[in-house]
Amino acid sequence: MDTLNIAGKSYQSRLLVGTGKYQDFAQTRAAIDASGAEIITVAIRRTNIGQNAGEPSLLEFLPPEEFTYLPNTAGCYSADDAVRTLRLARELLDGHKLVKLEVLGDPNTLYPNMLETIKAAATLVKDGFDVMVYCSDDPIIAKQLEELGCAAVMPLASLIGSGMGILNPWNLQIIIDNAKIPVLVDAGVGTASDAAIAMELGCQGVLMNTAIAAAKDPVLMAGAMKKAVEAGREAYLAGRMPKKLYSASPSSPTSGLIA
User: Fold this and answer.
1) Torsion of CA 25, 31, 36, 38, to 10 degrees
2) Is 80 exceeded by the pLDDT of residue 247?
3) Going by DSSP bridges, is the β-strand pair 184-186/205-208 parallel, antiparallel, or unpaired?
4) Which of 9, 21, 100, 216 is labelled catalytic?
5) Has 100 been annotated as catalytic?
6) By the number of CB atoms within 10 A of the CB, which of 34, 143, 187, 190 ranks highest?
7) Residue 236 to residues 2, 57, 99, 119, 199, Cα–Cα distance (Å)
């Protein structure tokens, strides 16, 4: 069966979805259900999963028994801050090891600070975490993160929340071709065709939040993304026909035509 395999566990869905920016937790749940996602990301610094007693908790709407939580370090700008945040998440989620690491470089572009990211990744891997890491689309950096022991690399398609789609498919293809761990596009997806393109290139999955949450109809968009990821994966497995410039090829055979 064609499944997504991360840190020793298999998943039917290759679409990972964030839980932020929705109207409320009820809409979050509806969108997640429509997406078919099994792995959901949670910004520990922005979402209550028990650290704020007396406030509504995401755990009530999306029980950990039904979904694989992927705590992330959104809003962290240093390795120390990111490591501290994920250690807190491990405590709140009863020893949970699968995490998403992102260390940002500046608040305007949210581009990753790769020096701090590599530093944090090394510490977290040694600390027993299974690290899925948001990174630039630099093939050398991606390979270094793999060699450190990360569970997956997640290069950006374009800037977080930009909706610009995949701006550099060539670098992304190099990363995919050389990786021995899953490669997932993270950040920049704007619509269903962007997700399909990522999967057609050979990505193992796509992670998104804003593309769904900021849509006029988030639940409908979540369903569209589900279909796009599935279609893109099937197209990749099928193997597309070669591109032929100026090479006409009739759909029907020419032999045996009536003269």
Assistant:
1) -30
2) no
3) parallel
4) 100
5) yes
6) 187
7) 12, 39, 27, 34, 7
Q: How much of the chain is helix, strand and coil, in % rounded to 5?
A: 35, 15, 45
- Name the phi and psi angles at 222, rounded to 5: -60, -40
pLDDT per position as a tens digit, 168-185? 999 999 999 999 999 999
Of 41, 53, 52, 44, nearest to 17 by C-alpha is 41
**Closest listed residue to residue 202, CA positions, set 180, 232, 226:** 232
Buried b (16+ CB within 10 A) or exposed e, 152-169: bbbbbbbebbbbebbeeb
Q: What angle do CA 22, 111, 128 make, to 5 degrees?
A: 80
CA distance 87 to 99: 10
Asked whether the beta carbons of 1 and 36 are under 8 A apart, the reply is no
Flag the least confident range among 2-11, 116-125, 247-256: 247-256
- Alpha helices, H only, 127-201: 139-148, 169-178, 192-201
pTM recorded for the entire structure: 0.89
CB atoms within 10 A of CB 105: 16
Q: 130 phi and psi, to 5 degrees? A: -95, 110
Number of neighbours of residue 217 by Cβ within 10 angstroms: 12
Could you give the CA distance from residue 9 to residue 171 in angstroms, rounded to a whole number? Answer: 28
For 49-201, where are the E strands, in sequence order?
68-72, 98-101, 130-135, 152-155, 184-186
The two structure tokens encoding residue 53:
């007693």
- Please name the residues in contact with 53: beta carbons below 8 A apart, sequence gap of 6 or more: none
Neighbours of 145 (CB within 10 A): 28
